[in-house]
Design brief:
CATH class: Alpha Beta
Distance between the termini: 40 Å
CATH topology: Rossmann fold
Strand content: 15-25%
Keywords: Oxidoreductase
Organism: Sphingobium tyrosinilyticum
Number of strands: 9
Structural class: alpha/beta
Number of domains: 1
InterPro entries: NAD(P)-bd_dom_sf, Sc_DH/Rdtase_CS, SDR_fam
Strand order of the largest sheet: 3-2-1-4-7-8-9
CATH superfamily: NAD(P)-binding Rossmann-like Domain
Number of helices: 8
Protein name: SDR family oxidoreductase
Length: 259
Amino acid sequence: MKIDSDLSAIVTGGASGLGLATVKALRAAGANVAIFDLNPESGEKTAGETGATFVRCDVLSDDSVAEAFAEARRRQGQERALICCAGGGNAIPTVRRDKTTGAIQPFPADKFEWVLRLNTVGTFRCITHSAAGMMTLDPIDGERGVLVSTASAAATDGQMGQAAYAAAKAGIVGMTLPIARDLSREGIRINTIQPGIFLTPAFDGAPPEMIDALNAQVPFPKRMGIPAEYASLALELIRNTYMNGETIRLDGAIRMQPR
């Protein structure tokens, strides 16, 4: 699919990190972009800096997602590209023992469920809304739209304390091919990017020795990923019509250690 001023795109989690880099890359290529994010301050700031449109969206809410898609389409027309970058997690062992009291504490199920709802269900919720809209369009060169999801190296290399996050991201990987098959008759593609360790705002303020240790884990190049590299792959997945139903690792060949 060609990326130019005729393309309307939506990026969830587009006000920071991987999403922000993708917004910038799409705008540089001429696309009309709507930023879906929970943070109005950073969302409006990003929109002002890039010429994109900000729409507040909570991917945990059916109503919020439906309203956000309706507003984005009102402002810039039906999207033909959706890039899902919204997500997050926690770090809690499956069961832990208090070092002081010895009390045994299971992972709270509600906190496990929240991570799955945010990542897996939130991504799927946005995909279904977007694909339903894309199905109303006439095909261009045989396709109606493109979906890009974001998983994580944790989907296959989950570390200690990442049971919820690993399960949530593995769910995104696992649903990619079935969604591609479901949407194939409608001319809509989907692919998933599985990033390794990227230099995002999550590492703002991290001590240099921590960054050095993370860099050392990557076989080559020996550094954390740059968000612009994620964005470059996301745009290629939009452009390359033969890429469908795939999950692509973008991680410098890292395989995460247990901790």
